[in-house]
Design brief:
The complex is a heterodimer of chains A (88) and B (120). Chain A has 88 residues and is mostly helical. Chain A contains 5 helices and no strands. Chain B has 120 residues and is α+β, with helices and mostly antiparallel strands. Chain B contains 4 helices and 4 strands; from the N terminus they run βαββαβαα. In chain B, strands 2-3-1-4 form a 4-stranded antiparallel β-sheet, covered by helices on one side. The chains are: A mainly alpha (88), B alpha+beta (120). Chains A and B meet through α5 of A and β2, β3 and α3 of B.
């Protein structure tokens, strides 16, 4: 029977680990989010055109708020849909 | 400020609609920083039974902004304007728009292309 230490490395230990998420606005020094740029904002919505949570995008709170207001402005100007299917 | 003009109008009428509002700002004591015609775009959803619209982006400076409600009211009454949005820009927003006009913001590829053109 195999001991506990051998069993530990039977599968790749890094396999199930997730990459650390980061806030892309902090990392690349983006200070202003343009509501007139739907191609950029589309990264922060899902296929139905809903905003993605911070849990998934990894944005910091400050920039998540700005993303959400930018997306809402873009929706008002019909640059992004309020709701659809198969946006991406 | 961004607004969408009805695409059914002729080119001159679209231009005059945009000019109308930029003149209004100047008349009220504001200063036009830039008027950008973003062109005909597909709308993400129909507005007033139109599927396309001509987008304009107008950046202006004003001390008090007291004339903005007045301008918004006239835009609301104007049938040529499908939608509008007025937004206060912070210093980063002003810098962003300036950089964008100078072609500093955009895809890396475009950036390189512009640089190559400058060198030629």
């Amino acid at each position: 029977m195999a001991s506990q230490e051998e069993i530990k490395f039977l599968s790749n230990p890094t396999l199930g680990q997730q990459r650390k998420k980061y806030c892309r606005f902090r990392k690349f020094g983006i200070k202003h989010i343009d509501y007139k740029d739907p191609d950029f904002l589309i990264q922060f919505v899902n296929e139905q055109g809903k905003l993605l949570p911070r849990r998934i995008t990894g944005n910091s709170l400050k920039y998540q708020r700005r993303v959400s207001s930018a997306v809402k402005r873009a929706r008002h100007l019909a640059m992004l849909p309020f709701s659809t299917d198969l946006l991406k | 400020m961004t607004f969408i003009v009805d695409p059914v109008l002729s080119d001159d009428e679209i231009k005059s609609a945009a000019k109308n509002y930029s003149d209004m700002i100047v008349h009220e004591g504001g200063k036009i920083v830039h008027l950008d015609e973003m062109g005909l775009r597909q709308l993400a959803y129909p507005i007033n039974k139109r599927n396309t619209g001509v987008y304009f982006s107008l950046e202006f400076q004003s001390e008090s902004g007291a004339f903005i409600p007045k301008m918004e009211l006239s835009m609301k009454r104007d049938e040529r304007i499908l939608r509008f949005l007025t937004v206060r820009l912070d210093k980063y927003g002003v810098k962003y728009n300036e950089d964008k006009r100078n072609g500093l913001i955009g895809k890396r590829k475009d950036w390189k292309k512009k640089k190559a053109e400058d060198e030629v």
